[in-house]
Batch of 2 targets.
Target 1
Amino acid sequence: MKWEVVIGLEVHVQLNTASKIFSGASTAFGAAPNTQASAVELAFPGVLPVLNRAAVDKAIRLGLALDATINQKNVFARKNYFYPDLPKGYQISQMELPIVEHGKLAIQVGDEEKVIRVTRAHLEEDAGKSLHEDFQGMTGIDLNRAGTPLLEVVSEPDMRSPDEAVAYARTLHTLVTWLGICDGNMQEGSFRVDANVSVRPLGQEAFGTRREIKNLNSFRFLQQAIEYEIQWQIDTLEDGGRVEQATVLFDPDTGETRMMRSKEDAHDYRYFPDPDLLPVRIDSAQIDAIRAEMPELPGQMKARFVAEFGVSGYDAGLLTGSRALAAYFETVARASGQGKLAANWVNGEIAARLNRDGKDIGDCPISAERLSGLVVRIADGTLSSKLAKQVFEALWDSELSADAIIERDGLKQVSDVGAIEKMVLDAIAANPKAVEEFRAGKEKAPNALAGQVLKAPTGKANPAQVQEILKQKLA
Amino acid sequence: MIPAELVPGALRFPVNLPSLSGHYDTMINATLKALSQQLAAKAVSSEELAGLYLNRIAALNPVLNAFITVDGDKTLAEARAADALRAAGQAGPLAGVPIAHKDIFCQQGWKTSCGSKMLDNFISPYDAHAIEQCRAAGLVTLGRTNMDEFAMGSSNENSFYGPVKNPWDLAAIPGGSSGGSAAAVAARLAPVATGTDTGGSIRQPASHCGVTGIKPTYGVVSRYGMVAYASSLDQGGPLAQTAEDCALLLNVMAGFDARDSTSLERTKEDYTRDLNKPLNGLKIGLPREYFAEGLAEDVAGVVDGAIAELKKLGAEVVEISLPNTQLSIPAYYVIAPAEASTNLSRYDGVRYGHRAAEYKDLVDMYEKTRAEGFGAEVKRRIMVGTYVLSHGYYDAYYLKAQKIRRLIANDFKAAFERCDVILGPVAPTAAFNLGEKSGDPVQMYLSDIYTLSVNLAGLPGMSVPAGFAANGRPVGLQIIGNYFAEAKMLNVAHQFQQVTDWHRKAPAL
């Protein structure tokens, strides 16, 4: 049987506010345990939450970027359950009236663009951490993370493959860092993904039963976990079994998912509006002010790069992977007047080199201005692609401009017909055997001779011209 | 009078308290206003006053059980600081006057038990907003008053520390949940006290103990540092002998506080400003439903008498209707337990408070801790609250109760188009006997009929001493005002107290 995969993602985006969502305690990562938990996070008797408006502004930014509805009245609710790292015995979250609803996010998978609907994004506080290691049969509680603002972004089940799910997660990750509302650090848990996965016979309308994979903190794990889960569900169904609704965990060591709790164990969270917090009111002026400060978004920029510089959708998608990268590319493209060539270099050599060195575009040793100097010399024929690579190496390792390197190393391509003729004639004279072989029809093209010309120490001849003049001289 | 030794338990008195034999009776019956004048005139020091009240607490508290915690050394230190301020010419008008705080207000360095075993070992690391305000005014803490556990109760029988006795009749309940505060003021163990009112917890004990108390409009007194019972209903307020004292103390307690999102951002007002206004033309609304079946005849008689006095002062009476009054009981006993059930989840034995001595795992620790730490009424309300918020029941209970709440607020809105204040009884009967209703929670809940709707609507309400029932126990008159009409209500109460002396009567102890 042919199966269709259905995936929806819930992403916890940690908002990068200086203080917590309901108190003035710091949100900085990595402090000694429990040093950033105020009486509010410790849930002392009598303490009360006060909403951090910066978190609201950041949620609005994402809402606008997702072209979503901003609910001008939204409501915090209590989600009740007992756990030692949840000191109040309830999490303050949003249930019936979230701050953001009905958004959409375009993703690029290969050459295809697809729009994923975003159901909602709601504000909530993070819990603390339970540390089960290092305490010999006991559990340590660190409440530093408790009260850190989260925006939970919930998609519709619109994705049909692990690649689409990863593309969506990456695009959302790019967007929240682009907007400056999240530091995007997945190792530190700033961007955590839950994946709801189900399969159904191709052509069937009703969804299959889903299982939710919790807390995936890298794109690789997201991909692996979904792939494993799909195969597990298909195998189970093809073996005549049933998939039961459940929450599962992915074990990166085994590459498998395993059951955490079944539907029967699901909590009754007893949601109700938190009486300590009034409904959040957002006036239109506030939304307009935030809209006015919105940067050009990656999706918009991508479309513009395609239209303005003639690059492919795929390339434009890569170039808009971060604001810094997009700005770098655009500077190169504008300064050189060579959009496609600039895109090839940025997505090619630059990306490969940064990747090899584990660097970010912000650490790139070649400034956009210096790269554009190289691109200009390629476009005007001064540099062959081979020479260009040589100049690129020198650019990477020095502070010089492309022109200075060309000058210093004598890498200028010779395009003067007279000079090339002389080099060709010299080569013919010096290689009678090669000429003979060519004339005897052993070779279709005078490649050996051309190679000699191009290797000649006197200058860097334009290869196309060499071929042409050789053919004339040997004719 | 002075006990020369420490009283056992949580009540600690210094060995050598200053004595004030000369004008004992004058001082012990004096109002906040009078004491502040005596202090200003340097007729008495704050330290002397503190000693006087500590003495009286030491003598009478073993009978009344109005205080959970007394710490004489702390009190005297505060008093000396107030005296020093006064000597330096920096004392505010109320500096040095003693006050008793309900054990629900977190107070730095003081045990804040909320009447519960769960918090019997909890020393608060911080001050509630109301406490900060009292400290800033220079009021001197006499101690922490007894209360129903987590403010859940109408009789003070739900305290882990045992019931408070009514100073007028030791067989009677003092009312609840601010029973310790009301009894302390009535017995002259303190000139003024703080209280909180979620469904009548200031007004009903004030009525039963013959003192004056006001629950302000929801949001006037910050809830920051007030241990939460039902967040959308809880409101702090003063208890005192007179309306004027209530106004003076409310001036201290009220005020915007950014740490409470439901605190109202309003200009600070002087609640004494209208005390002396004549009542000519005042329109008094009498809700038909408050004088119907269920109201004891002697209580009705006291209320009628008070209305007659106010008419003599120029007030006019109109009959009004609050048709949804009966629904306030079911609505309240859904909403308050719902909120309480989650507010009390934090008492889990993990970070502070009681923790069971032995347990086999986490869930066992939770269960034993909470089973041991909470009393029966608290458990009952947690269970009711958990039930009404459960999946599938939420709409039928919680949502419906919220709709009723709106209807009740609308009743008042319509009524205040026809009158300036609403008058009626505080409770259907005078204080009942200890043990009389403790076995029957529903009977207990029904006695809250006249007070609950004020909290559900968020309105201000007060109780003013107006006479005595057939059995000699005090009866209060309830005054209900429109939102932010505290000054008007205090005006009515003050004018009433100018022509009556019910508030001057003190129990013989």
Target 2
Amino acid sequence: MSETSSAVTAFEALRRQTLRRQRLQTLAGLLIFSAILLISFQRSQFFSSDIGDDPLGRIGEFLNRMIPDLKGEALLADSRTEGSLAWWYYDLPRWLRLGWQTVEMAIVATVLGAVGGLLASFLCARNLMPIAAVRFTVRRTLEAIRTLPDLVLALILVAAFGAGPLAGVITLAVSTMGSLGKLFSEINEEVDPRQLEGMRASGAGYAAMIRYGVVPQVLPNYTSYALIRLEGNLAGAAALGIVGAGGIGIELQRAITYTEFDTYLAILLLIVGMIFLIDIASEAIRHRLIGLGESR
Amino acid sequence: MLELHGVTKRFGDTLAVDNVSFSCQRGELVGIIGRSGAGKSTLLRMVNRLTDPTDGHISWDGRDVSRLNGAALRQWRRRCAMIFQQFNLCPRLDVITNVLVGVVAERPLASSLMKFFPAADRARAILELDALDMAHAALQRAGTLSGGQQQRVAIARAMLQEPELVLADEPVASLDPVNAEVVMDALQKICRERNVPVIVNLHSLEIARRYCTRIVAMSKGAIVFDGPPAGLTQTVLDRVYAGRMTPETAPFSIVEAA
Amino acid sequence: MNPGQLARARQVAPEALQPSWRRRLINWALTVAAAAAFVAMCVDLQLAPASVLSGFGKLGTFLANSMPPSDGGDLPRILVALAETFAMALAGTVIATLVALPLGVIGAKTVVGQPVLHFVFRRSLDWFRGVPSLVWALILVSAFGLGPFGGVIALALADIPSLAKLFSEAIENADEKPLDGVRAAGVSPLMALRYGLAPQVVPVMASQVLFFLESNFRNAAVLGIVGAGGIGFELEERIRIFAFDQVVFIIGLYMICVAALDMVSQSLRQRLA
């Protein structure tokens, strides 16, 4: 019995010790966290904001104003008739043109960014770039690019290149390069080394090694990632317009500024539809690519 | 005394347990043997009501437990402890908390939510762990222990429930021979010292022969043998294992029995 | 190589030596068409080399002007703005977590077994997930006026559907065995969640929340540009007046903060694992 009770005393001693440490840690953690949280809510004026007496009512009113005043009997009439679809989408040709411009921006930026990312990925893959300093520099640069939000970069580039799609394309291309460069280099490092050795053994140069040893292995994965990025870039291109970097975003901004909330909804639906179509197309291509990769 | 009357379980079209009746006294260590899929696990889970029987009655000391619900059902589960093949501990909780789960049902809601247990509970948990030589690991996470150690923790948890009946579903199937022996010894000790019936599913005939006071053999959901280990002849085994186990291919020492 | 060998090779592998001209032609045509389409798009977007060059020239001037970076005597204000951005991110993440938690539990297949209900619930979450925080911010800033409040709600609204889905999946992926073990001890359903499920899913959820905090810190900087205050607003102001020494200073400071937050969150996540 003395043995078993000694087990209990030993445990209780150990428990007190552990508990004291744990409680201290938990207490400190909780204190710090709640202090930060409190300050955060205070700083973000979450509770002190003057949001009117009836915030939900205001959102409701806002949403209500987004719903266009369509009339059933005049639905298919021309744009001068109040309540028709054409009246709601009163500037449709311009929006479609800007929408197409947005798509073009996304595609061009994805292509440019993918090419840039490809070059960068070879420079920072451990199995393809022997010089550590180069790998380090390229990696850090890509990381820095990924940290910078697109919209901030777009603001700077709009100042340099002027308002228009050029600034938007460069912004998206740079940020695409940042993310694809990292993903591509991860793919590169998974390349089967036996094939590379085989190439080296048969006396192939660096370029030939990449062309025949690496590219065939990684191409399907590359394309798949680039297509996913294309989907993201389309939403990105639509948003960039808000700061004047081309595309349909400028119209969204205008609609908000002139408090044409029904127009805002109209353009938003257009963008969502556009993204939806590109998503479907890109998914179809990706599925075919994956199927291709398996059958090989 | 545990009594089963015509207990049946169907999963869709398959008959998992077919009209099983047997009873079991205090102090008995009953081994249930049979091929996998014979309905052993389902039978045990029905006693504990983790699975509901399709038909039949299960009673404990004359009281029907097969139709219990809610609080009464939880009360019954507390009285019959269950030990699982995969231990079923929470790997991220420490060992002592895993053991104390055995008394959670009897403690106030608020303190249980906070994982707070009175010192008396902790002392009991440590004593149960110590009896299985596991008190040293009380503050470790259960997931860091070996399989044999985890099973001992699971037994300590079962003991903290102060069970009137212990069910063990393949408790040694995932363990190496040394640990299997430790765990079976513990079950045997529980059966003798606390005078509770222990029902244990086993796939190893050798272990069943060595530890059990009585063996129940199942085939295709029905009981095909019920008696002392000595009565387990080759003829019976042929029926249980449907001729699949000839002395040459038997993984366990059936030869000496035959 | 003599003619006999060639003939033999042809016999063994006809495709290898006689490349399908049709396929080659198609491949070439596709490549040319893609290149032409690309060029046409560039032209349509007026990506003229001249404007690219002049733009990069201006960018060079900006960069030259930005050296050495300077805080413009406004360091306290910049730090406060950074803190405000972090505050928005944290407040948004906490609110999103609080709302997403019950939604995630309801959305888990193992909790709500009804398949139709589950399908409808998940689909509606999917639909809302398509709306990025920037779009929410535009709506909310015009509804509530300028200030971080709209930004916080925008971040939360954008996170809730994704977090709820991740929470549901965490619950669905939880191991059933510990739950069975706890139930067998006769505990109530609430206690079964506390001792069987929570220890498994809470660390997973916490790590996901930390990921969202990181990404919200980035998004919060963007929301400032559309009027939600914080560092984005300070940046926009300075870009507008071409004060690039201060722009570079702020961006550098911001990047350091992002890296620091990522490091803290990563070490926390490692401790959770």
